[in-house]
Design brief:
Elements: H1 4-15, H2 17-29, H3 35-48, H4 53-88, H5 97-120, H6 126-135, H7 140-165, H8 169-230, H9 240-252, H10 256-264, E1 267-268, E2 274-275
Helix pairs in contact: 1-2, 2-4, 3-7, 3-8, 4-5, 4-6, 4-7, 5-6, 5-7
Length: 291
């Protein structure tokens, strides 16, 4: 990266502000150019009287905003269909639809901070954030406002430092690169710590939920066992009507033959006598006649 820096500085000294505007715009779109070091050098040249510091600020800020807008609309036209294509089925081995969905939700919650921070704190992520903001259909008005403030701050800092330290701008550039790297590492560390805390919290909640479910199942088993033990109690006493119905039911079970036999055992004779024998006999008034 630093190998391009002498050529860029020579080119900027030859062509001045138009070369600076074009370089900053291309870098804002996503090209890997050391624009922070270039702005430091341009601030040092402004301290020598070669450039105007205010014009450098206006040129670099406008070029950055233009490049960021181009990256935003590239993401909106190309990135959005690409994310929709990746979200349907797993096209790549390490990129699943669930991962895409989680990244989209996280970016929607942190889009404003990501756009602003990638302008003045971590400028190396500016091109990627622009494409993601366009792909996620982040409102362009909000994007533009945050972009203007962020790019203005991101241009003022190196220009003023280069103007203040003059010939020592290279040492300041190395210091700014180290600070930027440290900030990136700090962000990653904080993110991993937060992710670990959330994972441990979810595990604890799941354990408590499983323990509650297990305790509830044990209580249900105890209640079922107690109900089965209480089901062996003696039945309630029968009422009078229940006994009567039971007696009639028993009598009906004896069948038709005993009732017919009892009717046959009683006959009425001509003299008004009744007998309990099963066969008729001759009467005294009418011998030879059988009832």
């Amino acid at each position: 990266m630093n190998q391009l820096l002498p050529d860029l500085i020579s080119w900027l000294q030859l062509y001045g502000y138009p070369a600076l505007w074009l370089s900053v715009c291309i870098a804002a779109i996503g090209a890997p150019l050391p624009i922070s070091l270039v702005l430091l050098a341009m601030g040092a040249f402004a301290a020598l009287g070669d450039f105007n510091l205010l014009l450098l600020l206006l040129v670099s800020t406008s070029a950055s905003i233009c490049g960021d807008s181009i990256g935003y609309w590239i993401g909106r036209k190309i990135g959005s269909p690409l994310l929709a294509w990746l979200s349907t089925t797993q096209k790549l081995r390490f990129i699943t639809p669930k991962t895409i969905k989680r990244g989209e939700d996280y970016f929607r919650r942190r889009a404003g901070f990501a756009v602003f921070a990638s302008r003045c704190i971590v400028p190396s992520l500016g091109g990627t954030i622009n494409i993601l903001a366009g792909a996620e259909h982040y409102p362009y008005r909000n994007f533009l406002v945050l972009d203007v403030y962020g790019e203005a701050i991101g241009a003022i800092i190196p220009l003023v430092l280069g103007f203040a330290f003059g010939a020592s701008w290279e040492a300041i550039g190395r210091l700014l690169s180290q600070i930027s790297t440290l900030i990136v590492i700090l962000f990653i560390a904080v993110y991993l710590i937060v992710l670990l805390i959330r994972t441990l919290r979810k595990m604890r909640v799941n354990q408590e939920r499983n323990a509650t479910v297990t305790q509830g199942l044990a209580q249900e088993e105890v209640l079922i066992a107690s109900d089965s033990a209480n089901s062996t109690t003696p039945p309630l006493p029968r009422t009078h009507n229940q006994h009567k119905r039971r007696k009639v039911r028993k009598n009906s079970k004896k069948g038709l033959f005993p009732a017919t036999l009892r009717r046959l055992q009683t006959y009425k004779s001509t003299d008004g006598l009744h007998t309990g024998y099963g066969f008729p006999r001759e009467t005294m008034s009418n011998p030879g006649h059988r009832d």
